[in-house]
Design brief:
This protein folds into three domains: 2-97, Rossmann fold, CATH 3.40.50.20; 124-198, ATP-grasp fold, A domain (Dna Ligase, domain 1); 202-303, 2-Layer Sandwich (D-amino Acid Aminotransferase, Chain A, domain 1). Helices cover 34% and strands 27% of the residues. It has helices spanning 13-24, 78-89, 99-106, 108-117, 134-147, 176-188, 246-259, 287-293, 297-315, and strands at residues 2-6, 28-32, 37-42, 47-52, 61-62, 68-71, 94-95, 125-127, 157-161, 170-173, 193-197, 205-212, 215-223, 238-240, 263-271, 274-281. The two termini are 17 Å apart. Belongs to the RimK family.
Amino acid sequence: MKLLMLCREPRLYSCQRLQQAAASGGHQMDIFDPNRCLLKLSVNPPHFQLYYQANRNADPILLDKYDAVLPRFGTSSTKMGCAVLQHFAAQRIYCLNHANAFALARDKWQSLQLLLQNGIPVPSSFLSGCEFTAENAVRTATKSAVQNNVEQAESSLILKTLSGSQGIGVMLTEKPQSAVSLLETLTQAQISVLLQDFIAEADGADIRCFVIGEQVVATMQRKGQSGEFRANCHRGGVTEKIQLTQQEKQIAINATKAIGLDVAGVDLIRSKQGVLVLEVNASPGLEMIEKTSGIDIATQMISFIERKVTESVNIL
């Protein structure tokens, strides 16, 4: 097969591992930055074309057709990356995570709404309009946390920007006054943010599940450094192996399906209310979870693509 990965940083561990796994399977994989693409639509006959400019001084080249596309772009490339994905999907080329699902996963609030709509447990969360006062938003969120018997509910709340990754845009406020001040500042800057219960009993730990299709292929527990509530590895968190219950695995699979993804990193947290889904990541990193679990996730992803492409060919 001829594969295309959409990624701005080809040197990243995940990109290198997937390219190696593709080569081991006898496939060619190109890695292109979606922000360097030019999309063309023509009407007679209906036609989709894509040009790529490797650098500012290079002449654009018309790309050949690919058998499948792997999206691995970051939040700064979401809009153009999804446009490129849709361009390929319109040509009936298989995309490992479709544009609509990818964009949905990047919006923390809309993805939480859809998860709860599908019966998947999430932390109590609040999103206020720009004319709803920050003081009332924080008071309502804090009152709800007390009613839910959340530890330290009288003071602590999590604030999250609607887009962001690797722990960026996630803030812990230990006093209501701090939450009000921060929410007012972000609202004034026209940055949308949600409020969420702080799950103190998790002790700075969460669980990353790597889902491919309808299977959890690898897991790890992440724990933040002393004094750090975020468990993300990019924030200095440490990882270890962990065994999940069948119920926890099923929740991760259901969350992936609810968002409409084929591959996802699902973050879970164990609370007094049971296991909750914090987030569903459409482009989960491979490095720490492969090294922690000892599982070759990259090869499993390529094998999944092989099956999907074969199925699509048989259908056609």
